[in-house]
Specification:
The protein has helices at 2-33, 36-45, 48-62, 64-67, 71-77, 80-95, 105-122, 128-149, 154-159, 162-193, 197-221, 233-286. It has 287 residues and is an all-alpha fold. Helix 1 crosses helix 11 (197-221), helix 3 (48-62) runs antiparallel to helix 12 (233-286) and helix 7 (105-122) packs antiparallel against helix 8 (128-149).
């Protein structure tokens, strides 16, 4: 009866340990992902800075028939370095909960200079219409550039209240992160107390690895992430690149847990076999 109870406790503890391992991994991932450092790193890894800049210049070029402002005016106003700084500032200011500080003064100077040159050459009167058109062109250029720099759509999420919820969840995750570590440690300690700990810990690691590995392999094999449909190329490459990166982390973690689990189970089998051989030899000697 005692052995049956012990076996049941081992199985239950093993199952709880599997959930604890998966939960702890999820918390670590959530804590890692929702940080400005990670988002900025992903923007760099997915070539987002260049994509956002090229997309911005294309928008200005496509708008030439309406604005009549040559693309070189915009190229002088918004450089690739400006785009990188603007993207990073958008992310940092959001996490630091402050107003963003992005210098757009070059666009005002260059567009104003272009208007003045055009007015001088074409003998355009600088009346109210002229001033309104100038202000409208500057406003359009700056809003378009800042919108393109918001590669994670942080402004949209802020207005929708999504960022506040994400921040609350992130704080909750960080608050209970070490509680999860402690809970996992307690479960492993219980396994040790119930004996045959190497086998059951190995089983828990093996099961956790399989639970992470199977969906990750399916996603990669079916190329599911690349099948996403997003109109904006910058957003598409950023989202798919980030998801692929996260899937790779899950895949590698699953392989590590699976390998460790198999190793512990093999070690248990070797020790058990060695123990059985010693018992057989001992029994033979006694006979």
């Amino acid at each position: 009866m005692k052995n049956k109870i012990t076996s049941v406790l081992r199985i239950l503890t093993c199952i709880l340990t599997v959930f604890a391992i998966i939960g702890t991994f999820g918390i670590i991932m959530a804590d890692k992902v929702y940080t400005p450092e990670y988002l900025i790193a992903q923007a760099a890894n997915t070539n987002t800075y260049d994509n956002a800049y090229n997309s911005l210049m294309k928008r200005f070029s496509d708008n030439y028939s309406i604005s009549n402002i040559p693309i070189d005016v915009y190229e002088k106003s918004f450089t690739q370095e400006w785009m990188k700084n603007a993207v990073d500032e958008k992310i940092n200011s959001t996490f630091e909960k402050r107003n963003e500080v992005i210098d757009c003064s070059a666009s005002k100077e260059n567009i104003t200079e272009y208007f003045e040159t055009y007015a001088h050459e074409e003998h355009v009167i600088k009346d109210e219409t002229y001033e309104n058109k100038l202000a409208e062109s500057i406003d359009y250029a700056q809003k378009t550039a800042l919108n393109e720099a918001d590669v994670y759509s942080l402004d949209v999420m802020k207005r929708a209240g999504i960022l506040n919820k994400l921040s609350s969840y992130a704080e909750l995750v960080r608050k209970y992160k070490y509680t999860c570590f402690g809970g996992l440690a307690v479960l492993l300690l219980i396994m040790v107390m119930l004996k045959r700990s190497i086998y059951w810990i190995g089983t828990a690691l093996f099961s956790s690895g399989m639970l992470l590995l199977i969906p990750s392999v399916i996603i990669k094999a079916e190329n599911m992430i690349q099948k996403f449909s997003l109109k904006n190329f910058t957003t598409y490459t950023l989202v798919t690149g980030t998801l692929n990166s996260l899937n790779d982390i899950v895949l590698v973690t699953g392989c590590i847990l699976l390998g460790l689990g198999i190793l512990l189970i093999v070690i248990h089998c070797i020790f058990s076999r060695h123990k059985d051989i010693k018992l057989q030899i001992s029994d033979g000697e006694n006979q």
